[in-house]
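2024-03-11 09:14:02 DEBUG pipeline.ingest accepted 1 chain
2024-03-11 09:14:02 DEBUG pipeline.ingest length=77
2024-03-11 09:14:03 DEBUG pipeline.predict start
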Amino acid sequence: MGYDEELLPFLDNALNDNSSNKKLIVLHTYGSHEPACNRFPSTYLKAFTQQEDDNCYDSSIAYTDKLISQIIEKNTR
């Protein structure tokens, strides 16, 4: 299974496509849907609490936050 960050090259292609002045770009992400531990690379897993499910969810939120930051950065160039 892929991760949401794999959408970034498609976003780059869409942003660099100059065939139209107007664009609507939709990125359909997995976000933090269950199972949350499958929504991000294992290197992003952090221990916020003693509860594994909570850690998975919180880590998926942190991963998604980073992804959204990258998307915003690409759109402001």
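2024-03-11 09:14:41 DEBUG pipeline.report The CA atoms of residues 15 and 75 lie 8 Å apart.
2024-03-11 09:14:41 DEBUG pipeline.predict end
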